[in-house]
Design brief:
By secondary structure, the protein is α/β, with parallel strands linked by helices. The chain has ten helices and 13 strands. The strands form four sheets. It has a five-stranded parallel beta sheet with strand order 1-6-8-13-10, with helices on both faces.
Length: 265
Amino acid sequence: MEIKPFLIESALLTHGLPSISNAELAEAWPNGLKNIAWVDQGAARIGSMEEFLPFRARAGALIRIDCQSLPRARKEGLSGALTASGTMALCQELGIPLAVSCGIGGIGDIRAERLCPDLPALRDIPVILLATAFKDMLDIPASVAWLRGQGVRILGVGTDCCTGYLFAGAPVALDGSLQVASLPARGAGLLLLNPIPEGARIPESSYLQAGIQAGKEAEARGEYYHPAANAAFDRLTGGRSSRIQLTSIIANGQLAQAMTGIIGQ
């Protein structure tokens, strides 16, 4: 397996963009981003969008794999998409210094994620995470405070605060703005947030509550919360929420490319 300078999570691409077809993904995805990571029958896979799309076509049978479930998935030959923390864990396994995500977990009223594995992963796994923001249904101030209390630094790209993910919210102070030249080569305890421009976010704040309700109903059925919430946002916005997120994860991947040569040396 070729060692990459960074890996891109596959959970959003697999389960979180319901109205975006494989053909649209193939057209939108930059050819140079050949760093998507997933697990197929227990084996770690890293590849281009062309290589990933046959896996995505099996989305209904695929699980979500975080850092806590990755060892079992590898041992039991399971197939699934990697979340932010799952991607960080695979990066650690392969000696890769940077993981790329989009919306990430935190502290919130989600049955399976009272404390999302993304948070302790940032404390414990010696991999930098580049993401967009904490997801809007979470307690963003509490998530930031928890990370800060564990010694994790959070830097914004072009900003020193977090104002939400798909929706615009109250600003939460971070630890500063990103200075790429001063990034450490590797190590635990660093989260970089590259936000969606506020003018490009969903203006209808009522849609957030509808997504939360859809996620809760999915939980009650024993299904995943976040894909259900994303499906509600997608339906309410006529697919715009999915395209916003696709644009964001591509932007994060391209920023990671720009950091190559600084991180990991």
